[in-house]
């Protein structure tokens, strides 16, 4: 087991890529703390326990600093460690630049960028104390190449990559790595809502000819969270089937 005895917090773990990460980490021996506002997160934790793993669900928003700090304190008091933080929670509010409202900009920045900052800032003291930590945050290939109608989303994902590089410099001496994962189109509920004609065009633009499944992305997170990647820090692992950038 690649994560045996590790304690992992997965934000946005109720469905999609977050759910795949939570379930894979549990199979690899981690105790998983599923953090999400969606009630489906409870079912994810229950499923992990039924399969023989250890998991908790907590309905906490990444934008709630007090809630985040209380949760991480609970995790440390309960398990004595906090080894892995997966900053997966994210939202979209798509609109072209001229039509995007300030509220749509702020909502995406608050969750996708500030939420990553808030959770990481709360986790780091525990990781520093134990001289060990793995921080892996959700970027996107959109953060590398941009995307029509996603000024807010692309900006936050580029910011996540920059934060990982910065944290590498600040936290490396404490045995903490910080990386990002940049998925391309992945078969989540959001992608399933794309009209069929547009979806087919998307697939044709991907050299491998198909979109990812959540588990394809989860394996990238597993590598970066494992001790196999002990000397990997400050990178953005792109998992997008070779999409042109």
Number of domains as seen in the coordinates: 1
Unreliable residue runs: none
* Strand residues, percent: 15-25%
Number of helices: 9
Main sheet record: 7 strands, parallel
User: Can you name the CATH architecture?
Assistant: 3-Layer(aba) Sandwich
The name of the CATH topology is Rossmann fold
Structure description:
The protein is an alpha/beta fold and 245 residues long. The protein has a single domain (7-186, 214-239), classed as 3-Layer(aba) Sandwich (Rossmann fold). Helix content is 48%, strand content 15%. It has a 7-stranded parallel β-sheet, with helices on both faces. The chain starts with 6 loop residues before the first strand and ends in a 6-residue tail after the last strand. Keywords: Oxidoreductase.
Quick description:
With 245 residues, this protein is of the alpha/beta class.
Structural key phrases:
245 residues, alpha/beta, Rossmann fold, seven-stranded parallel sheet, 7 strands, 15% strand, globular
């Amino acid at each position: 087991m690649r994560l045996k005895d590790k304690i992992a917090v997965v934000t946005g773990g109720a469905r999609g890529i977050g759910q795949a990460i939570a379930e894979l980490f549990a199979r690899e021996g981690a105790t998983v703390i599923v953090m999400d506002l969606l009630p489906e997160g409870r079912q994810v934790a229950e499923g992990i326990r039924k399969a023989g793993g250890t998991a908790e669900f907590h309905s906490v928003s990444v934008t709630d600093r007090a809630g985040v700090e209380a949760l991480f304190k609970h995790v440390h008091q309960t398990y004595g460690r906090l080894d892995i933080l997966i900053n997966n929670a994210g939202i979209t509010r798509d609109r072209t630049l001229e039509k995007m409202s300030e509220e749509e900009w702020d909502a995406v920045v608050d969750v996708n960028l500030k939420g990553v900052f808030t959770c990481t800032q709360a986790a780091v003291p525990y990781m520093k104390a134990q001289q060990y930590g793995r921080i892996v945050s959700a970027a996107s290939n959109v953060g590398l190449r941009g995307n029509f109608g996603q000024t807010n989303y692309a900006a936050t994902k580029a910011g996540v990559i920059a934060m990982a590089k910065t944290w590498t410099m600040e936290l490396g001496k404490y045995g903490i790595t910080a990386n990002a994962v940049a998925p391309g189109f992945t078969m989540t509920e959001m992608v399933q809502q794309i009209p069929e004609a547009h979806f087919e065009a998307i697939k044709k633009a991907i050299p491998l000819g198909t979109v990812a499944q959540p588990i394809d992305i989860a394996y990238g997170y597993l590598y970066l969270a494992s001790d196999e990647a002990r000397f990997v820090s400050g990178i953005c692992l792109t998992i997008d089937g070779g999409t042109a950038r």
